[in-house]
Every structure is written in structure tokens, then in C-alpha cells.
Amino acid sequence: MYRKNAWEQYSGEERALLGAFADDYRAFLDAAKTEREAAATAEELCRAAGFRNLDALIESGEPLGPGDRVYRKWMNKSFMAFVIGEQSIEKGMNILGAHIDSPRLDVKQNPLFEDEKLAYLDTHYYGGIKKYQWLALPLALHGVIVKKDGDVVPVAIGEHEDDPVLCITDLLPHLAQDQMSKTASKFIDGEALNILIGSAPKADEEKDAVKAAVLAVLERDYGVEEEDFVSAELEAVPAGRARDCGLDRSMILGYGHDDRVCAYPSLRAVMDYDGVPTHTLCAVLTDKEEIGSMGASGMNSHYFENTVAELCALLGFDHDLSVRRALQNSRMLSSDVSAGFDPTYAGVFEKKNAAMLGLGVCFNKYTGSRGKSGASDANAEFMAMVRRVMDDAGVCWQTSELGKVDVGGGGTIAWLCAKYAMSVIDCGVPVLSMHAPWETISKADLWEAYKGYCAFLEV
Ligand code: MN
Ligand code: MN
Questions:
Q1: Reported pTM
Q2: What is the band of 146 on the pLDDT scale with cuts at 50, 70, 90?
Q3: CA-CA distance, 246 to 248, in Å (whole number)?
Q4: Same domain, yes or no, for 89 and 227?
Q5: For residue 286, which ligand has an atom nearest its CA?
Q6: Neighbours of ion ligand 2 (CB under 5 A)
């Protein structure tokens, strides 16, 4: 099957639209380096686009009707936006799903220590990372510290020009003979991922004077003490902004494309919908995908189902059967990034079924690994419908598998939505260097994903 490169089909006008969309996406990436920041940014965008907070309507019991636009943030880490359709919600929704957590280094609950007048934060990595990639690069610290009285102190250090940054040190090559002979997975221990955060001792302090100085800064700037780390969620991420990549500016190098490069266009497609849709539209941006979707803000929890039940109630359905029908009859694009074909590492891909940069939004009929294990294999009937919708809308699209059979694999949130017996297929944007501190995507694929999502909302 021959597929045309998306860039070859663009008019000057479409290139301008694509460029503007990519700029908006870069701004989203910079504002949303964690799931909390992504949920908060999504809320801001939705409020500005006339969406109302569903929790307020649940509280007041104000009924919903066609054309109403509502959102719900769950535990500050997951986010849902809905546009109520003309048809009964029992006929199902058109759902766009993606995740907003990304691989990173989480600060431990008792993290602070000093060794030879250097102070460190101990970390536990989150998601599948190549640990060696996180050494000797500027890190920023994002998250919240929740004090015992419930006060939430937001933290974001390392993003502004005059902010300090943090780092994990690496060994100099001159002394790395032993280290260099290790395999990449043994190159550095997870336990050795300690973030350097200070070196100047506090005056008149006998023991752990550097640590004391760091604590004094935290007290001064954030009003927190060491004990407060216990109820903090602090995430170390690469410091700095997403950038255009390539002399032709055709790509974006950024942290957390997995999976914000799908989450952003999914949200925008629902947000940008003008008027009253036939079916109820939904964007669900979820947390915890990178660690198996467990936890109350992950797709394996009931938060999404509960929210649909609330919608049903406000739409005048008060029977559990309506919720089941609404979910079962839904159609969903479960979006997550695909492994972009990389000529440098061609050996792990099967070229006919690899996601190529620039060929557009990518559909994965199934994911899983070694014999489709764990895959939510979409029905051919649903695949045919998606194919028709994409072609009719002039969307550039492709299909892929995650690498060669038996080489590896991975999972997404699709199977968790398939539990409701809805029609769901994996799709998304190809990424180079997936799960690295800085990942690369093609602006054309981002744009085609957005176009594809908009078209899907009309089915
Ligand atoms: Mn992902
Ligand atoms: Mn991932």
C-alpha cells in the first residue's frame, strides 16, 4: 500500500493553519509538564471556550440539554470535556481519549539527604525510562506540596530564564572504564538517580548544614518544612521549553509528547466543536497510563463511568441501564503515541507496518506484545468505519504495529474502555525517541490527528 506524505498535499493556507496549531500545542506543552498542570490547563482552555464545571451542575441539579458544554476535573489529575448531543446519550458518545501523565522522576516521600556537603533529593522513576538518559541534563521540579492543614503549595522550579535548575550527575569518561562496560540497563541504578539540589552550608550549623540551607530556602519561598515532603507530589522533568525541530521547522522536540500530542488535539477537537452535535462528544484525558492505569485517577478506576452516570442523571435518565447503554454504544478513538519508524534503528521495525513520520495519524488495530497478548483488538467493522470517515474528510492516515512481532510491545487505555463493550481503536501520533527526556514528533502528524479527531466527532 502506498501512502502519500502529508506535507506534499498542503496548500499554503493549510500550512499556515498547521503552523498556528503547532504553536498552540507547543504552548500547551510548556504550560503542562505534569498531569496536574495538563488538567489545570485543560480546565482553563475549556472555561474560556464556554464549558461549565459539571460538579457545580451536579450540586445544583440543573438539567442538561443538547448543545450544553461541560467539563469535569477528577482529583486534579484527569480531565473530561463533553458537548451534549441531539440524540439520546443512550445511543452512545463519540469519545476521544488520551493520557496526560508522562515518564519522569518522582521525588520520594523522605527524599532529602546530604553527603559530603552536597544535598540531594532521592527519586523513584515513574514509567518506563532509559535511566542513563536522565543524567547530566537540566531538570525542573513541578508539583504540589500539601501541608498538614490541607494547604496546597504549587511548585514549579527551573522553567524561567532566571530560575535555578537541578541535575543528576554522571561519571567523567576518564574514570568510567567499569561503567562503560556495563549494559545500558545497568549503567545507572534506579537508586542512584539522586537530584543534586545544593552545596552551600548554612552558617553556624554543625550537622547537615547544606541540607539545612536547602530547607531554609524551602521555608522562605514555599513556607514548607522537611516533614511536608511526606504529603507532596514532586516530579522532576527536563527543564526548558518545547522547540521547533529541524531547519525546516517541520517537527517539535519536547518533553511529554507521550501522550500530550494526542491529548491536546483530542481536547481541541471537542472544544472547537461549534453547534449541537448529533451524538454527545467527549474528550477524556487520563492519568496513570504510564504505570498501568491503576489508581483513582487512572482509566482503570470508575471515575469515567461515574461521570457518565452523572451526565445521564442530569439528562433525565435515572436508571443504571442508561449508563450501560451510553457506554456500550459509544465509539472511541483511544489515542496514544506510536513508535515512529527510525531509520537509525530500522532493525526493530517491520517497515510495511510501521508508523512513518509525516504520513499522518496512525491507527493501531491492536497493540499488545508477543502474540497480541493484552491487546484490545478492534473489530474489522469498526476499522472500516474509521477508514471511511478519515478518507471522506481527506485526512492523511496510516496503520501500524509497535515494532516487529516478538521484539517487544506495549499497552494503552483502549482495553479499559473496551470493558464496557464499546467500539474502540487505538490511534495516535508517531514519536521518535519515545519515553526519552526529549521526544520528537512531526507537525504534520499532529495536524492530521486533529483533523481526524474532528472528523470522528461527526460520526
Ligand atoms: Mn502513551
Ligand atoms: Mn508511554
A1: 0.97
A2: very high
A3: 5
A4: no
A5: 1
A6: 258
